[in-house]
Amino acid sequence: xxxxxxxxxxxxxxxxxxxxxxxxxxxxxxxxxxxxxxxxxxxxxxxxxxxxxxxxxxxxxxxxxxxxxxxxxxxxxxxxxxxxxxxxxxxxxxxxxxxxxxxxxxxxxxxxxxxxxxxxxxxxxxxxxxxxxxxxxxxxxxxxxxxxxxxxxxxxxxxxxxxxxxxxxxxxxxxxxxxxxxxxxxxxxxxxxxxxxxxxxxxxxxxxxxxxxxxxxxxxxxxxxxx
Length: 227
Fold this sequence. Notes:
By secondary structure, this protein is of the alpha/beta class. Strand 2 and strand 3 form a beta hairpin. Helix 7 packs parallel to helix 8. The model has no long low-confidence stretch (mean pLDDT 93).
């Protein structure tokens, strides 16, 4: 199962993208403030932006889609969840070993040694946070514009997509690559491809089934029907 922003939008999580060149933070568009270049040029500003984002996320809770997906992990002998979301709501709903393709807004990563730490366990008044292992400065552990996906997570997702029997694509626009390529890899390997989305996407024509509507409404219905 691959999930995108549409799943979390039902929990009140905004996309923050702002639309085109619309300013989203102190006059800067999303692709500037959330970029690798900004980490290099103004790391404190990046932290201010992500602290604001986490403030918004802190009021959001898992919705019925997150909860249904978490139940499916116990229901099926083999189940993989990959998400483009960085909000941590899948884990909050009970999902385990989530493949977070774009990272997690609640983690920090050291620029020096690469170590990762939970931000909830670090003092919020120290920015940038300091790595406990080496004393280096830390950055948000998310994939920013101009960066590659985490190699280990991406390889795991690609390998599992290529050998799955059933692939659900839920709440994603299917335009953000390389994650958007996972359903096509699954289909090429013979998987039955199902899209759940309120609107058609570039992936829709390649799907074996499309279910139009909100994930929080459709997934619980499938659960009830024993899909």
